[in-house]
Amino acid sequence: MNITGTALRELHRIHKQLTDLRGRLERGPKQVAASEGAVRRLELDAEQAKETLKKARIASDDKQLQLKSREMKIDDLKAKLNIANSNKEFQTLKDQIAADLQANSVLEDEIFESLEKIDLLAETLTKADADLAGARAEASKVKTRIDGEQANLESELARVQGELKEAEANLPSDYKSDYDRVARVRGEEALAEVDGEVCGGCFQMLTPNMMNQLYLTKPVFCKSCGALLYLQEGRQVGD
Ligand SMILES: [Zn+2]
Q1: Sequence spans of domains, the chain
Q2: 214 C-alpha vs ligand 1 centroid, how far in Å?
Q3: Fold observed for domain 14-169
Q4: Rounded to an integer, what distance in angstroms lies between the CA atom of residue 86 and that of residue 80?
Q5: β-pairing, 198-199 with 191-195?
Q6: What are the backbone angles phi and psi of residue 170, rounded to the nearest 5°?
Q7: CB 5 within 8 A of CB 218
Q8: How far apart are CA 26 and CA 32, in angstroms?
Q9: Helix, strand, coil % over all residues of the chain, rounded to 5
Q10: How much is the pTM?
Q11: What is d(CA 16, CA 167) in angstroms, rounded to the nearest whole number?
Q12: How confident is the model over 190-223, as pLDDT tens digits?
């Protein structure tokens, strides 16, 4: 039973195409998962930016309330100052007011700083929200593209699998089971083109006898890697 290099080359081409299609079918969902992962990370970032801003606002509001109540306390002290009964009491109140005014000035600085910080945090939140929106749009684009591609790849895969069945049906029956065994395990590496006198799969040198068999269109399996061998185009009579 003979088999030409042309037939085996075609069979190998089909196997390679199947490997490529399966690889693309596997990569698609991974790309979708990666873009969805990016969205989840940015969701957390945006959530955190929102929370940080909220806390900063509460802290700033607290300080402002504190300042108001201290200012009221100073007004109280000033009222008492006007009705002080003794010099000593007057002086004590004056000292108290001076100390409180000093403390309030520190607090006012802190409030000013907290308002500046709030502005920055608000900018951070705006940017985080924009990044998130961008990532969501991108993820949705990726999903739409991959969903479309997957459908095409599935039908292409089915078509090429049909081609494989046809090509395999043409293999001579006396070594089909050997081929089937290798093909099941190794996919496209079940076949290898002979490069010079070397197996293209494992680079093992072939014997003169194996080369003769190949020229005579006899089936030859590489003794080293088990691949079904075929000659390069044009090296076989009738190629
Ligand atoms: Zn080999």
Answers
A1: 14-169, 173-231
A2: 14
A3: Helix Hairpins (1.10.287)
A4: 11
A5: antiparallel
A6: -85, -5
A7: no
A8: 11
A9: 80, 5, 15
A10: 0.72
A11: 14
A12: 999 999 999 999 999 999 999 999 999 899 999 9
